[in-house]
Write a structure and sequence with these properties.
Blueprint lengths: L13 H28 L4 E4 L2 E5 L3 H19 L3 E6 L39 H7 L1 H4 L12 E7 L3 E15 L2 E14 L6 E2 L11 E8 L10 E10 L4 E10 L22 E4 L4
Parallel strand pairs: 2-8
Antiparallel strand pairs: 1-2, 3-4, 4-5, 5-6, 6-7, 6-8, 9-10, 10-11
Length: 282
């Protein structure tokens, strides 16, 4: 009897299957290497604004930095007793029903809420309340003409220890004759393990802030289904008795992974969802 060959029957022999698998692996390896080489040597457009470098979105390098940023940001929120969000829409239902309100300036690097340390903890029902309690400290830093995308997030342990300062900014500029929109996110974490505050430096640069990422778009591509910024929500407001309690604040950071639209009607969606519902009190 003649041996049965792979031709004229269903399936493959073991040798043929292994050979096919090896060939497939080699082909995929070559494809992956070629794609990696393409991205490695492809020039990423960059611009310089206020002495800082911004990469054109989508940027794989900035996305990698953003992942580190958000890992540290989530850790700081998880360890916080309260979270203050300054800036954005509807910071207060009656005093600021529309917004945008002012965020803290980028030069804010305080590590302690000095007034809050001796205040009634139950007064801190809202970021707006904390803004009033710490007015002497905050007012010199509040930004003028805020952009809707501008906000500051402070994570706090106890009543006064600031453990991180997250800043989100949007700028518009004309660079090399092109109108562009630039997004910057910075995070400064504070180490209290020694009992005294220490500003944590970036492990790669040895300088502050601890983490950051920066991207830009052509101005007509800055169209988002979920625009970056902060929106405050409220559980209770009582104008007569001056009682209020803030619910979560929706915070959306610019996502360096999204592909910009090609015209003014294009919509840019936040693919990796750099969005949070941040509680005022934990």
């Amino acid at each position: 009897m003649k041996p049965v060959s792979s031709f004229g029957r269903e399936g493959f022999s073991l040798v043929e299957a292994v050979a096919g698998l090896v060939l497939f692996v080699l082909m995929m390896g070559a494809l992956t290497y070629g794609a990696a080489s393409l991205f490695k040597f492809q020039s990423q457009p960059e611009v310089t604004y206020q002495g800082k470098i911004y990469s054109l979105a989508p940027s794989f390098g900035e996305f990698r930095r953003a992942v580190t940023f958000h890992q540290l940001f989530v850790l700081a929120m998880d360890q916080a007793d309260s979270i203050l969000v300054l800036g954005g829409q509807r910071s207060h239902p009656t005093l600021d029903p529309v917004g945008p309100s002012s965020a803290l300036g980028e030069n804010f690097s305080d590590t302690t809420l000095t007034a809050a340390a001796g205040s009634d903890a139950f007064q801190g029902y809202a970021s707006w309340d904390q803004r009033e309690i710490n007015a002497t400290q905050f007012d010199p830093y509040l930004t003028s003409s805020p952009d809707p995308a501008d906000f500051t997030v402070l994570t706090v342990q106890g009543q006064s220890r600031i453990t991180s300062i997250a800043q989100h900014r949007r700028y518009t500029a004309t660079i090399n004759g092109e109108n562009v929109v630039l997004y910057e996110a910075t995070l400064q974490t504070v180490d209290w393990s020694s009992g005294s505050p220490v500003l944590v430096t970036n492990p790669s640069t040895g300088a502050t802030p601890t983490s950051s990422y920066r991207i830009y778009y052509a101005a007509n591509e800055d169209v988002w289904q979920q625009p970056p910024g902060a929106t405050h929500f409220w559980y209770r407001t009582d104008v007569s008795w001056d009682r209020d309690q803030e619910g979560p604040t929706r915070v959306i950071f610019a996502d360096p992974y999204v592909l910009a639209g090609q015209d003014a009607q294009a919509q840019v969606t936040s693919v990796s969802q750099f969005a949070y519902f941040v509680p005022q009190l934990r």
